[in-house]
Automatic annotation (TrEMBL):
A motif (Histidine triad motif) lies at residues 388-392. The keyword Nuclease does not apply. This is HIT domain-containing protein. It comes from Diacronema lutheri (Unicellular marine alga). The lineage of its organism: Eukaryota, Haptista, Haptophyta, Pavlovophyceae, Pavlovales. The active site is at H390 (tele-amp-histidine intermediate).
Amino acid sequence: MAASALIALAVSRFGVARAPLAAVRAPLVARSRLLRMNAPSPSVGALYDVPVSNNGARCRMVLYYKGVPRDEVAVVSPAELGGLKAPAFLAANPQGKMPLLTLAGSGEPLPESDTIARYLCARFAGRGPALQPSDPLAAARSDRICRLHDIYLAAVQPALYKVAGSAGAQAFPPFGPFGSRQAALAELTSQLAVLESYADERGPYLVGAEPTLADCTIWPSAIFWQTILPKFGMPAEAIFGPRLSRWATHMMGADDVGARVSAEIRPGLLEWEEKQRWAPILGAGTRDTAGATIFDSILDGKIPADVVYEDELVLAFRDIAPVAPTHVLLIPKRRDGLTQLQRATAEHKHVLGHMLAVAVPAIVAKDGLDSYRLVVNDGAQACQSVFHLHMHIIGGKALTWPPGV
Ligand SMILES: N[C@@H](CCC(=O)N[C@@H](CS)C(=O)NCC(=O)O)C(=O)O
């Protein structure tokens, strides 16, 4: 790559930092602005990152453990390049994500926190703890935790705080390969059990007596889990088993680097809270404040119903005032704000799709119907009487058209 690194002064939220501002393919306008600043450059590179970023904090922990000063690696906000999705940033990291390390001199961009962390370990090998153990088994134990994080935990991490339908141009939707937030969060908690089994029994670090890349990788995300999972009803004490609980106490109370990164991340999460980040996110706290309906009594078993179908998401039972030989009401078990169809958001896509593509076919098959009508009365004027979304499945006789208008 052509040696085209640019030099600039940057002020990050971590304090004043002098940094080369990316350099590589920055647009000319940014380039001339940066060159005018004429400030000394960090000798190794600039880490584009913000304090709340857990992936970035992995790299910052390496820098902190190794005591790398800001005049060697500066920490710079991506805003200096116009933001993550600005052409100058995308030119260096086409994924539009932080962290990104741009190397001084060559301007070579290194994206991906695991790659950056390993580069920094190698580049500053003689300083601080190795973080990559020389013992092959210890190294493998650290690596398997990093892999667990990046492949299984990180895939569903955005379910903690990203609204559905917000994926945009991102490579992964917030629920990862899962259909719903609930399923993604269930996966996250089951992967935390795997992490618990990988954590060293005695510690105090995840792989024994010394910190490794495993701690740098997991600790920033652990701060997210501890802060956010309780919003989805998971008790704080149930998030980590005994090994991870002991480790988290050590990282927070006895490890300066752990405490420092926590102090960087937590205010960012608090700011998200203050900006109502979780308000539109289904299941984070109580969003559905409408009163209980007769369907809640049926779901609770307090009122008997002639149930024809049930699975983990929905319940179907025969209408007590049938208008045709088959007249079944199909409801989501968790109302989750779906008092009526017009309240549906992208968060409800999974349950709505499940009703149409899984539950309805099963129900009509049971009654041997090859013709039927699905009706959703959406609102009082459309004759909705119970405000808990429901579908009427009507059939078993010749129906007329138009339907009751
Ligand atoms: N696999 C990447 C993931 C990077 C990532 O997801 N970064 C987040 C911040 S922690 C980000 O840039 N999010 C903003 C976005 O995706 O627009 C890594 O480990 O570096």
